[in-house]
Amino acid sequence: MRDITWENPFCAEGSSCFRLGTDAEGNAYIAVAGQEDHYLTDSLEALRTLITDIKAGKADHLL
Questions:
Q1: What is the domain count for the chain?
Q2: Residue 29 burial by CB count (10 A; 0-12/13-18/19+): exposed, middle or buried?
Q3: What gap in Å lies between CA 41 and CA 63, rounded to an integer?
Q4: Whose CA is closest to 25, among 8, 3, 7?
Q5: How many whole angstroms separate alpha carbon 22 and alpha carbon 29?
Q6: Is residue 47 predicted with pLDDT exceeding 70?
Q7: Cα(42)–Cα(26) distance, rounded to whole angstroms?
Q8: Which domain holds residue 17?
Q9: Which terminus in the chain has less CB density within 10 A, N or C?
Q10: What would the pLDDT profile of 10-46 be if each residue is shown by its tens digit?
């Protein structure tokens, strides 16, 4: 089992909650809150890029 430090859940209005996490090796994790044993993982840089792009509106077409 990986030693993942999870942030508090992020819950948008009317949708599922998810959590972001990191580990000491520089990996980033995303999971549905309550299902942290089933996560997606990538580098911290990939997570940073994802969040920056979402904030810039590059994923608005998915909503």
A1: 1
A2: buried
A3: 23
A4: 3
A5: 6
A6: yes
A7: 9
A8: 5-62
A9: N
A10: 887 767 799 999 999 989 999 999 999 999 999 999 9
